[in-house]
Structures are given as structure tokens and as C-alpha cells.
Automatic annotation (TrEMBL):
The chain crosses the membrane at residues 30-57, 83-109, 121-142, 149-167, 198-216. Keywords: Membrane, Transmembrane, Transmembrane helix. The keyword Transmembrane applies. This is ABC transporter permease. It comes from the Bacteria. Pfam families: ABC2_membrane_2.
Amino acid sequence: MDEVSQVFSSMGSFSDAFGMNQVSFGTLTGFYAIECGNILGLGGAFFAALSASAILAKEEKRKTAEFLFTHPVSRSRVLSGKLLAVFLQIVILNAAALLFALICILAVGEGIPWEEILLMHLAYFLLQTEIAAVCFGMSAFLRSGSYGAGLGLAILFYFCNIIANISEDVEFLKYITPFGYADGADIAANGRIDAGPLVFGICLGVLGIIAAYARYTRKDLS
């Protein structure tokens, strides 16, 4: 595995893009940072985008808004219920992923690096929450299913982080994308979540939720 790690870390821009120059595949933490970053990071981002991007727009696309809003329920309450539903789906996904990861680590006889594992999973949870919040805001402005827009946003964020890893000239992109603070290799190497991109991401997510409430409560439903 030492030889494999040397090969992966000496592949130039490819190694930089995925953080393989910072961690070793010969260690549990290094292997987990790369694999989990690709699967739970990108896959979780897709899940969050799919869950949130059409949760409001589908009411108009499927004509269920006509039935829903004839009931004595305010739009704000509907928004809050849908937002809570998205959040709970993300919580369940991450809880299940963390539980099975810990079981598998114990099953192969390895000690659990608690700090690194919990930090990485916390970062992925925050990443998914931010993407869901932004897509939730987007959904309030659309009248039809917006799966493509949500997935496109997640992919854009992902490639922004890859580009920032390759070139120092565009390192500022790490402050725009949630993958900037949820980079498993960075977390494993530094033992912390980068606070700068995280704060920006929290603000972006809050703005997405505010935009959803501001738009949807005044929107003329088709």
C-alpha cells in the first residue's frame, strides 16, 4: 500500500484534484477520506439536491397546489413542513452512513479514528444541508420539476472544488463551494474543518431559505 500511495500521490494534477497528495491510501483515515469524499460527499450532494429542488415546484407541476392551499393551512406552515422533511431525510441518510461505517471499521479489526471520522461526517452533513437549502430556495421560483437545476448546481460546486485544488490562482473558489470545507483529504490532513468556507456556506444556505419564504408566500400559484 505504501507503493500504491506513492503512485497516487505522484500523478500531478490528478493527485491534487482529489487530495491524494495529502493522505496515504495505506492508512484507514486516508483511504476513508478519499472514498467517503467521493461517495458520501458527491452522492450525498446529489441526494440533497434531488430531495429539495422539486419539493415546492412539484406542487404546481402535479396540480396538487390547488388541493393543498384550499385547506386552512398557511403557506409558511407548508414551507416549514417541507423544509423539515428535507432536513430529516438528510439526517437519516447521514446517521445510517455513519453507523454502517463504524460497524465496518470494527468488522475489519481496525481502531476507529473518532476525531477524523466524526469531522468528515459532520462536514458532509453540513455540505448536504447547504445544498438542500439553496435548492429549496430555487424550487420556490420554479413552476415545474427542477431536478436538473439541482443536480447541475451540485455538479458545479463539485468541479469548482476540483479546479481550486488544481490551480492556486482560483483557490478563492473554495469559499464558494461547500466541497471546499468538506474536502475529506484536507480534513484528514489538517484535523479540522476550514472555517472560512463554512461560514460563507452557512450564510448562503440561510439566504436560500429566506428566499424560499419570501417568494413562495407571495407567489401566484398556477
